[in-house]
Each structure stands twice: as C-alpha cells, then as structure tokens.
Amino acid sequence: MEYIYRGEKCGWRVAQLALAAALVSLLAACGGDSGSGSSTTTGQAQPEKAEPQHEFKALGGHKTLLVQLDGVAPEQIKKVQQEQAAWKSLGSLRLLRSGGYEGTDSEQMTLPLPSWASLLTGTWATEHGVALSTYSEQSALQVPSIFQWLKRAHTETVSSLAVSKTDYSQVLTAEHQAGFIDHFTVCEQADECVTRATEQALLDGSDFIVAQYSAADNAAREHGLASSQYQLAVQRSVQQISELLSVVSARQQQADDEQWQLVLVNSYGLDEFGTATGAQFTPNKTGWLLSNIEYGAAIPEQPVPPLKALDYATIVDVTPTVLAGMNVPANDSFAFNGNDLRQDVQLSQLRFNYDPHTYALTLKWRVLAGSAGQDPVQIYRNGNLLATLDSSVRQYLDRDVPAGPEGTLIPLRYELRVGQGRASVNAQVLPPPSLYASVLDGLRIYYPFKNGQANDVKQVSNFSAWNTTHSGATWVSEPAQLPFREADGTQALVLDMGVHQHGGKAGYKLSMPNSDVTLNPNVDAFTIGFWFKSNGVCIGSGSALIANKNYNSGNTNGLAIGLFGGCELRFNTGGGGGRDELGGMGTTPDEWVYVAIAVDKKNSRLYAYAMDPILGMQTKQMAMAPARVAAIGGSGQQLMGFGDDTTGEYSSRYNYSGVNSFADLAIWDRVLSVDEVRSLFASRHPISSLLP
C-alpha cells in the first residue's frame, strides 16, 4: 500500500536546516544501549557527548517520529512555523480536542497524564483507565498502547521511547517489561537527555520513536506564560526538535525508500496562568497536531460553520492515524475511540447512553465527510454486524442487549463504519434480567398466539373477532417484527381497526365465562398485561386498547385502557357517576411497549405500567373510590374488548382507523410487582418460554 505524506510522495524531505551542522556533533543517548534487545536508561540533565556518528543504521522502510511537546500553545507553534522552514513544511496546524466530550462517557480531566494515555492508546480514560493527575498501580493502562499494537502487528519493529516526565514513563513500564518497547529512556525532567536519546534512536534506525518534552510546561507552571523563562524554554524545545528533524532529513538523503511520518503534538492545553487545571474550558481542552500526514477531506484547515475547530480532530485520533501509516491493519473489531485522519469520512462524538430500566442502549454520533459520506452506516457489536442504516441516520437504539449473569457488568464493543471511516466505543452494562419464573404464579388466562392461533393455554376463555366477515386480523411471525429475542413460534396479532367501515365493528373480544377476574368476588386483585404496538394513528377522541365496558364514557362502570392524541395511554376505571384515571403515559409509534393495568380490589388501588424502549419505564398508582372498585366488573357480560370495547363499535363511533398489534396477552389473579413487569419487558421473552 502506498502512503502519501504532505510534500513529495513516499519520500518527504525535511527542508535543510541551518542546524544541519549539528549532525557533526551528534550526541549519544543518555547511556542507552544502541544495539539489539531491550534497554532501560535513566538520564540526567547533562549527558556526556558521544563520538560523532557518520553512518546511519537500518536505512529504508516506514518509520515514525512522534514528539509530544507539553506546555506549548498553538500560537507559539504558528510563530515557529513562520520562522523555521522545516516546521512550515509540515503543513497547517490542526487543533485537537482533549478531555473528551462534556456530559458523555468520554469526558475526562484535561490533565497531562490522562491526555498522554489517550494520545498513545486512541481511547478516552473510561477505557484506558488512567484518569487522575498522578500515576498509581490502580490506574495502570487497561488497554494496549500504540507500542503494543505495532509490535504485535510487526514483531521485527524496533521502538524507542524517551520521556522527561517520570509518571509518563510509569504508564508504559509494564509494556516495556513485556517487550513491546525496545529502548526505554527516562530523563527525569531533562529535555536535553530526551534529545540525545532520540538522536541515538534515529542513528540506530529505530522504526517507531516517541519523544516527550516538558521544559516549557514546567516553566509555564512555575513562572507563567508571559515570563522570559517560559519563552526561553519554548525556544530551547524548538531548537532540540529541529535537531531531530535535521537527523531525519540526513537519513532520507541516504535512503530514497525511507518514508517518515513526522508527528508533533500536544495533548492538552494550559489556562491563562500556565496551569493544566483539568477543567473543560476551551484553553484547557485545546491540543494541537503538526504533521506531514496528508489529512482526509473531512479535516479542513479552517472550521466550516457551524462547526468549530475542536469539533474535528481529537487526541484519540493520533494513534489510529499513526498505526495506519505504519501498515498496521485495523482489526475486525476496531479498538479505538478515534479515527484515522487520512480518511475522507470521520466519525465524531460517538457516545452511548444505557437505560437501566429498559435495558436498551442508545448510540449517537456525528459524521464528518468531504465529498464522501453517502455510504450506509454499519453498526457492529462485539465484532458482529448488528444493523445497516441509511447514511443520514445519526442514532441507533439497541434494544436487544445480550443476557448475562444478573448484577455482573458485561462488556459490549460497538463499532461504527461509514465507508473507510471507523470509530468504536466500549460499554460496560448490566445485562437485562431473566424472565422471572414467578410470572407463572396466579396466571389465569394466557394467549401466546402460538403459530397464529388464538388459544388460551389455560382453556378457560375464547378470543374471536367482533367483525365476523372482515376481522381485520393478520398474524406476524417474522422475528424482526416481534418484541421477543426468541419467539419460539409465538406470534403477534395485528388488528386493522379500519374494518369498521365494513359492518360497523372492529377489534377482538375475549369471552371469559366463569373466569372473569374482574367479576369474581373471590379474586381480591388482578393484573392484565400484554405487548402493544401502534402505527402512530392516535386521535384526540381516543381508541380502546382494552375495555370491559362501553367506553363511550370514562365514567361508565368498568375499566379501560385508551390510546389518545400524542399516543398517550390513559388507564381508566369508572363507576358511580365518576372515574379514577391515570394518564400522561406515552408510547412510541412503531415500537413494542409492554402495557399492564392492575387493580387491588381489597386495598382499593389502581396501578398502571407502560414500558417503552424510547420513553423508558413509566409507572403510576392511585387510590380508587369504593364506587369504582364495586363497578370494576364493567358490563357484567364476562367480556373484554381488545382494540375496541365490549360493543365492538368504539372505532366506528369515532372513525378510528389505526393499526394496533398485540402479543403475549395474560391475566393474573394478583397484582404483579414492578420488578415482575419489568422482567416481562426487559427480558424480551414470552411467558411461554417458562412453560414445559
């Protein structure tokens, strides 16, 4: 594969610097081993100079120099570019967002250590685990660094690291000890040592080299950004990095096939006092990137309104970008929160929200694209394709989170792909509960609608259409159209209420001779529950989902659940010339909602449940007047209408022509607990799954 860096194709040349003469007096690394194998060096401020080196080792191939320059603001770099030809030839400065996105799972403190970890892992602190300002064993890296990714992909790769901040080195010590970092130099606040160690790595031909400078950051913190000490520290850092660029230029003059990625970066910002506070103010979360990498069209030199500069690239984009330039292929399951900045499609602000009541996970994202962006959005979960969406979609609801041991977090890796753009996020969530076996207790009537048959498992009731010539009923068996994870033959009944135009009746009726819990004086309480879905036709005069009465008035004796304007559910009981009613509970059109009404006749209480994958868990309860409790048996006919009332003519009276779907209809002789109802919804298993 051919990689094109800014400037000359496959052979970018750093402009000849006046500092090139410094090559004559190249200094050795801080006592570091220049041979093969792994080495660790601790350096001091003034290392001894080595004999001049005139020949470079290991010429040719893809190589990378990544320099982290702490404490230097973007304005300082722009000024340097005006004065230094080699820096100017690296192209336009791009700002990088640090600190993640406020109010999302990606948000982290804009401090040096978490930012350093994000820079070298391509993930935010919620994944890499380094969240605080100081290192501890408890905050060790939880994910591979760029060094490990590179070594696993190309075992022959030689890598070198030189840092001046001790805690920066501690983050990577374990990877060095595991053999992923070959040469490891800790310079203890001595930038000159970093330069010498990095020059030695360049001479020896290391393939991947990381250098970290902190003198400017130290001077800013101790003396302020306006101080002469800070300005001098910046000048020294610029001079030292220019020396490194000179060495790269000299290597390339001897090797036409040596291709260098040059990456200068700062992964966090300072406030006006020269302090890294960790806050989410713009100066603190503004890093920068200067590189010879050819960015994709989605990363313009100047932001395009309404987007701002920090809406494009982030510090977690650096690792996947550099790895792509080192011919490290993306795994089947993309492991980074960031993007490869070379691509014309960038996936930005990928975030998730997990509802612990509905056990549904919502993904949201932004797509940045140049001339591309018309490719469909593909969503993967744990490496498997979950959904393919239209290119315009920016949100996805995963309502089928995998099951797992209750109370134990399960890891879910979500990846988005749009064309060549890729980004991912890791979610640790509590799995949905299993269907409680207790829902079999007190089950009096149950219709699983197995194989398109309306048969009561308990064999005590009958279910039939009001309109005998035009039932308006169809059966749905496709798994994608059902509310269940595994239907096992269970189907859904779809009722077209517009059939009232052919004979005046619509819906179904449940006949319960000698089994009507609303009339039985020996039954102190009951619950009626079912899955429901509307097609979004919700009128102000309402429609009856269920009713054991003539629902022409809510004051009529009996109970009903009505669907009104805005697809609002109202749970109604009437009697004695009045009503007790719970309303204001929403349903989302074209989404399966679990709906239940419960009446405790003995204690005079009404309960309502509506569990919607979008609106969440909605529960209400209220005291019932004695007149309503006494009249709860409705018409006294031992009938209950589904999709209509006990006349079958409610839809005709109000010209309602919606399409409503029902599944897993059940009636109990007790009040189900909230947890039981939630398990019916969240487990997404039919009650029949518990039956032998």
Structural features, described:
With 692 residues, the protein is an alpha+beta fold. 18% of the residues lie in helices and 29% in strands. It has 13 helices and 30 strands. The strands form 5 sheets. An 8-stranded mixed beta sheet has the order 1-5-4-6-2-7-8-3, sandwiched between helices. Strands 16, 18, 19, 21, 26, 27, 28 and 30 form an 8-stranded antiparallel beta sheet that branches. It has a 7-stranded antiparallel beta sheet with strand order 17-20-29-22-23-24-25. Helix 7 packs parallel to helix 9 (228-254) and helix 8 packs antiparallel against helix 9 (228-254). The chain is elongated. It starts with 38 loop residues before the first strand and ends in a 10-residue tail after the last helix. The model is unreliable at 1-37 and 44-52 (pLDDT under 50).
Report helical residue fraction. Answer: 10-25%
How much β-strand is present in the residues?
Answer: 25-35%
Please give the alpha-carbon distance between the first and last residues.
Answer: 59 Å
Radius of gyration: 34 Å
Shape label: elongated
Widest β-sheet, arrangement of strands: 1-5-4-6-2-7-8-3
The helix tally amounts to 13
SSE arrangement:
Layout: E1 39-42, E2 61-69, H1 74-83, H2 85-88, E3 94-97, H3 112-121, H4 125-128, H5 146-153, E4 159-163, H6 166-177, E5 183-186, H7 191-204, E6 208-213, H8 215-223, H9 228-254, E7 258-266, E8 286-291, H10 318-325, E9 345-355, E10 360-369, E11 377-381, E12 384-389, E13 395-398, E14 410-418, E15 421-429, E16 443-447, E17 462-465, E18 473-476, E19 492-496, E20 508-511, E21 525-534, E22 543-547, E23 558-564, E24 568-575, E25 578-586, E26 593-600, E27 605-612, E28 616-623, H11 626-630, E29 639-642, H12 650-653, E30 659-668, H13 674-682
Parallel strand pairs: 1-5, 2-6, 2-7, 4-5, 4-6
Antiparallel strand pairs: 3-8, 7-8, 9-10, 10-13, 11-12, 11-14, 14-15, 16-30, 17-20, 18-19, 19-30, 20-29, 21-26, 21-30, 22-23, 22-29, 23-24, 24-25, 26-27, 27-28
